[in-house]
């Protein structure tokens, strides 16, 4: 009996479509690996790769030879295995599972508020690695916007602003540093369309096109921007990209087949579920936003900054400043209540979603910062990426995972009997 699940209030995710999203809002698998070019040779001007062009089947990646291999037009490179990655280990008999906490960010833009760099540094200082879901068009100049062909919309259309040239450069730098810090670079796709003609209305083929284009923009940013003097990203995005979150949490049904065909290992687009141990949908790990206790309202709400915003100030991101302190406290207390419930109970992973935004005076950013500083230093806690959670789950005994899924979020287990 799962009494902790109780009656819930699901704050409206769809309200996001009614707010104006700015640049602060926040594949086909297996693109070929180009041979490393001679760094002394003049750089050729490659032709832009049409978005969504199928790639030939690549050869298996050999053991790294210790050299940097620049890929394609020089936008990305292979610099070896990602640094600072934990080695997943199977639970030993009687062992309590780690308490995983995933902080994730939709959009991944370094704007004038420098929130990407703020939270990247915060993570490094607090032993927290995070997942950054990059919107592909944040690497595409507005002058080249018609290269983007969004499903069911005109070329170049988007519900978020294209980044300025300066912001593209700053974002590329933060992506580089984030990956080197051990963080994950996922995808938030491209145009952030919600509601009519958005993700819920897209077919699997349309989602595939959106995926292919998201990867194309990241792997061809040098061609599209002309920034030849910038170094390549230090990772092969066609191999590093293993998961994403759909804008407004819409369209997972048809998105999953496209992701599965692309070789994704997880999807974080579910519109909300209870705090239970994850399972798979269509062979892909389902990492949903979660319903957390909302003590101030005696209900539960989704674990995303936008949903607190919707419940506190409705359809405006500039609510009553007199209530900011109260709302910030409510938000922080809800995150911590959700954490304490599983930390002292089932140990199910806690998934939290955010945007790089200054909604309601930046109170949601401060709430998350306080939570990171609080929970990531606690005994048994691992603040990790979605990919790292997938790695750990894939290492476990499926029978043990089945038992974990039966636990109520706040239900302490007899680990000596459950984990055998």
TrEMBL record:
Residues 22-98 are annotated as: Disordered. It comes from the Bacteria. Residues 32-43 have a biased composition (Low complexity). GO terms for biological process: carbohydrate metabolic process. PANTHER family: CHITIN DEACETYLASE-LIKE 4, PTHR45985. InterPro entries: CE4, Glyco_hydro/deAcase_b/a-brl. It comes from Kitasatospora aureofaciens (Streptomyces aureofaciens). This is Lipoprotein. Residues 49-61 have a biased composition (Pro residues). Transmembrane segments: none annotated. Gene3D superfamilies: Glycoside hydrolase/deacetylase.
């Amino acid at each position: 009996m799962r009494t902790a699940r109780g009656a819930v209030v699901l704050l409206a995710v769809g309200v996001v479509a009614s707010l104006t999203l700015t640049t602060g809002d926040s594949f086909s698998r297996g693109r070929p690996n180009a041979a490393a070019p001679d760094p002394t040779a003049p750089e050729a001007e490659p032709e832009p790769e049409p978005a969504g062009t199928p790639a030939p089947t690549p050869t298996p990646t050999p053991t790294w030879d210790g050299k940097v291999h620049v890929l394609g037009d020089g936008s990305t490179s292979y610099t070896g295995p990602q640094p600072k990655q934990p080695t997943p280990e199977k639970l030993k008999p009687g062992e309590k599972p780690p308490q995983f906490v995933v902080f994730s960010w939709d959009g991944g833009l370094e704007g004038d508020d420098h929130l990407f760099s703020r939270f990247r540094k915060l993570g490094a200082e607090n032993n927290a690695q995070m997942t950054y879901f990059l919107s592909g068009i944040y690497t595409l100049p507005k002058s080249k916007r018609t290269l983007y062909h969004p499903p069911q919309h005109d070329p170049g259309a988007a519900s978020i602003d294209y980044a300025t040239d300066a912001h593209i450069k700053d974002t590329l730098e933060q992506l580089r540093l984030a990956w080197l810090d051990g963080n994950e670079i996922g995808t938030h796709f491209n145009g952030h369309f919600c509601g009519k003609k958005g993700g819920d209305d897209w077919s699997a083929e349309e989602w595939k096109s959106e995926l292919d284009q998201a990867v194309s923009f990241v792997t061809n940013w040098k061609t599209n921007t002309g920034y030849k003097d910038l170094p390549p990203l230090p990772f092969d995005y066609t191999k590093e990209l293993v998961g994403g979150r759909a804008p407004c949490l819409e369209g997972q049904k048809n998105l999953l087949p496209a992701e599965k065909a692309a070789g994704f290992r997880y999807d974080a687009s579910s519109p909300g579920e209870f705090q239970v141990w994850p399972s798979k949908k269509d062979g892909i790990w389902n990492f949903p936003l979660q319903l957390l206790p909302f003590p101030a309202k005696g209900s539960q709400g989704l674990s995303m900054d936008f949903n607190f915003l919707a419940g506190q100030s409705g359809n405006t991101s500039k609510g009553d400043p007199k209530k900011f302190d109260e709302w910030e406290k409510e938000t922080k207390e809800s995150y911590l209540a959700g954490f304490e419930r599983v930390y002292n109970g089932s140990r199910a992973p806690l998934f939290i979603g955010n945007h790089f935004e200054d909604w309601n005076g930046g109170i949601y950013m401060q709430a998350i910062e306080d939570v990171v500083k609080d929970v990531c230093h606690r005994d048994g806690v691992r603040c990790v990426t979605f990919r790292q959670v997938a790695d750990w789950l894939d290492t476990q005994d499926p029978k043990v995972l089945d038992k974990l899924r039966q636990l109520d979020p706040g239900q302490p287990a007899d680990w000596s009997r459950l984990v055998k």
